[in-house]
Amino acid sequence: MYKPVLAAFAVAVTLSSCAGRAPAPVPVAQMQDRYANRTAIMAEVQANNQRISELGSEQGGKVAQNVVAGVAGLFIPILWFGMDFQGAAGTEQASLQARQQYLASLAEERCRGPEGPPVMPNNVAHR
Question: Which end of the chain, N or C, is less packed with Cβ atoms under 10 Å?
């Protein structure tokens, strides 16, 4: 009597563990930021833009997968365990966008240079 229930539970747990991946958000500030020049910052911004685009595609695919599993689950309820509720792509996208904002302010700070009065070049004669 308990064998079918136990078997169904084991299958449900197995399927639910395969339903999605755990999010891996990117930290906003990173150790190497203090050494990054403007070129390195811009390279990372471009790579982050590419990754944000890929995550958008992944998120769209997961939404479609969840819709299909939800509708098919009306006829085969065990399919509901295959739905992805972790939202890894959305979480990672949000962390990358926060990093992008931080990098933009860092690039602006690095381009501006140190604050202070303008320095006259040595070869300019004073009138």
Answer: C
According to the model, what pLDDT value does residue 121 have? 46
- 48-82 core/surface letters (b: 16 or more CB in 10 A; e: else): beeebeebeebbeebeeebeebeeebeeeeebbbb
Query: Mean pLDDT score of the chain, rounded to an integer?
Result: 82
Q: What interhelical angle do 88-112 and 38-72 show, nearest 10?
A: 170
| CA pair distance 34, 25, nearest whole angstrom | 20
- Lookup: tokens for 84: 């992805």
Distance of CA 125 to the CA centre of its chain: 55
- For 51-110, strand residue ranges (E) read none
Q: Is the pLDDT of residue 118 over 50?
A: no
Is pLDDT of 67 > 60?
A: yes
- Give rounded-to-5 percent helix, strand, coil for the chain: 70, 0, 30
